[in-house]
Amino acid sequence: MIDKLSRYGASIFSTMTGLAIKHNAINLAQGFPDFPVDPRLIELVNKAMVDGYNQYARPIGAPDLHREIESLIFGNYGRSIKGEEELTIYPGASTAIYIAVQAIINPGDEVIIFEPAYECYAPAIEIFGGIVKPIRLRPPDFTIDWEEVSSVFSDKTRLIILNNPHNPTASVWNREDFEALSGLVDERDCYILADEVYEFINYTDEGHLSIHSHEHLREKAVAVSSFGKSLHVTGWRMGYCVAPVEVTVAMRKINQFSVFCGNHAVQKGIADYLRLYFDSAKLRKEFMIKRDLVVDMLVASKWKTLPCNGSYFIMMDYSGISDLPSKEFAEWMVSKNSVALIPCSPFYSDTYDPKLVRLCFAKKEQTLKEAIEKLCKV
Ligand code: GLN
Hints:
Layout: H1 12-22, E1 26-27, H2 39-50, H3 63-77, H4 83-86, E2 87-90, H5 93-104, E3 110-115, H6 121-127, E4 131-136, H7 146-152, E5 157-163, H8 175-185, E6 191-195, E7 221-226, H9 227-230, E8 239-242, H10 245-257, H11 264-276, H12 280-298, E9 304-305, E10 313-317, H13 326-336, E11 339-340, E12 342-343, E13 356-360, H14 365-377
Parallel strand pairs: 1-11, 3-4, 3-5, 5-6, 6-7
Antiparallel strand pairs: 2-8, 7-8, 9-10, 10-13, 12-13
Helix pairs in contact: 2-11, 3-11, 5-10, 12-14
The protein binds glutamine (GLN).
């Protein structure tokens, strides 16, 4: 069989960006910033190139970047990792996720995911012969029904994939969620894949609750993060993963025979930037201002914004505007109202299709204002 993913089409993110370009619409669909990258970061990557960081990096990641990530994880979550054995740099968090699934599951193994689920999880599971076990999050807060998770959990469950803060719903995990997960996976031969790429974009008072902080759970956790989100450089493809030693060994083998290593100069530039300038509090504050701007501007409209506790997305209920299915609604919005959004349906494995679309607010204030004026007229 040539096309092992024949039941999947083009990514909804590139599809909607393509439609935004075609219709000359404002793109609040695919998640990427439209504001400039910190010039100091550009300068440091440039310097790394001038300084000769232009050949292969260590497949496990450049030593400088290892050191900085180790101190980031220790500083934020109090966890000392052994980078040489547990930390690997990948070209993008999605690559790390794909390789983690490949390393962990065998054909017939079951993997629990929470829907709406980020679009790369299910195909990665299926291509390696795994069985997707979806659990539907409960709107409007998109909370987890742990009794349902427990009823789906079986001897074949080999992996649970969580995403916190969550794309697309902007929900975050609380302490009870972690306790429930702990009760479930204890004594079981099951790993946890924690996709925490929005770890620094959390708006709750207690801040981001990372799997790294859970002494118990982290022993079974593959924790994935990304500089694309934290440094506004999604096109640089720079993700990383902390995993138990046996999983890291397996993942590194796949990595060395496929992608081999991440971009060396970018790794060096990011390492220097993290050491000198990275300010996660500022990042959080800037996104919080953008989130509040969107919510405030939409209050008097026909749109209903759902709670946003993390990430740079916000879910919007359009049931006051249209009865169309979410994909058709998003197509109508981009072609007739010049704003591109992401429909909800591609995040579900079944036909469930609530009247929701996702808006990305990682945009300049001017872009957001122009777009929301259009949304308010609908
Ligand atoms: N993570 C981005 C989003 O959710 C998209 C990434 C991509 O297009 N592959 O919009």
